[in-house]
Design a protein that fits this description.
The protein is about 65% helix and about 10% strand. It has about 425 residues and is of the alpha+beta class. It has two domains: about 1-195, no CATH class; about 270-435, 2-Layer Sandwich (Heat Shock Protein 90). Helix 1 packs across helix 4 (about 75-100).
Length: about 425
Amino acid sequence: MVTNICLLLEALSIIYCLHCLYGEKFKLDIATTSFLAIDMIIMTIINYYELSKVYTMIIYPIIVVYCGIRFGFKIKEMITNVIVCIIINGGIQMLVMVPLHYILGVSLVSNIQLLIVNCVALSIVVLLLPKIKIERLAFYLQKREKILIISLGGCFLIITFLLLNYKGFKLFELNQTMLLFISLAFILVLTGQASEYKVRAKEVETELKMHKLYADSFQGLVENIRLKQHEFDNHINTLYSQHYICKTYDELIKAQKDYCQLIMKENQFNKLLTMESSVVIGFLYAKFIEMDKLGINIAYKISTGNSEAGIPDYKIIEILGNLLTNAAEALKTEDHLNQLFVLLINEGKFFEIEVRNESPIINLDEIDSFFNKGYSKKGDGRGLGLYNVKCICEEYLLDIIPENMEIEGKNWLSFKVVKRESSLIGNCEKEKRVNGK
């Protein structure tokens, strides 16, 4: 009876840890209840027939299947989370055993002591893991390179070996076991640091290339503006000379007004070139010119300065590029719609991007499907833009908030990207989205 309770507690620890790694609340649904029942049946059979502890390994493929059914069959995510789960639970159990050995002098674990260990381990998992946001570790590991996954796999095998000894009610050579466990922890940390430095080096290299590409483009735009400087005199002379061809004062006023509006329209994006962050601004200037030629009327609000948000320029460009491209393609499909608004605020710790365009009302379920990889109404090989934006947001702890907005009697489809630490929008804003309107 005590052994069965221990098995149930250990299974609950694994399930609860998996929910934390996936960032979901623990629920005793059909999948979870079925897993617990299967786990209990298998472990009871192994103990009843006194089978080798090697047979307990069969539970790990079942855990992987459970993750797929409960959280979705994403292979890399499943394997990473299962390995991390086993390492966390195994490590906690090993740490709980330390006082038994060093303080109480226990060298052979009884059923009651085994029950205590599992109770304490489950309490630590339930109380500690949700507070430390363990899902961030899972996401970090999923984005790292193969070397870190290989290290995790090695640690998983060693932890499994140690757990088999532990489940066999043995506590021999605990000193060596703890030393090995500590060494594994250091190996994981060092491997993670090496992987992070390598990834960061690639990011810096990409950012430098992006800076060079768009900085050169920006400088080219500035040169074009300078070359057009001599046209300023021509515009002044034209305005000055219009009184020779206009017969009345009202006609002169109208001619000068029309000519000034034409000049302002032609140079409506020039004030962008006076702003900071030349790479992003250079990209936006070129993109606005391109979209203006398509007949899209663009309004914008841009504010950049000394940023502490920690979002690289090339990632900002990727977000803006994907959102602007999607908005332009949406407007091209609607002949009577051509209005677009762009917001970029990147100052201090505050970061916000918004791209919104006139649009028919789109149901929220359909909007959410826009972020699925490969989802597109434009044919195969498309549908990666918003999926890439979602991946960037997950990597840099950004919230992306899609919504229908009614402005002056017209519906607009808006996509906002905000830094979680710099905005109170978050989930509350999501709940305020117009339901299908």
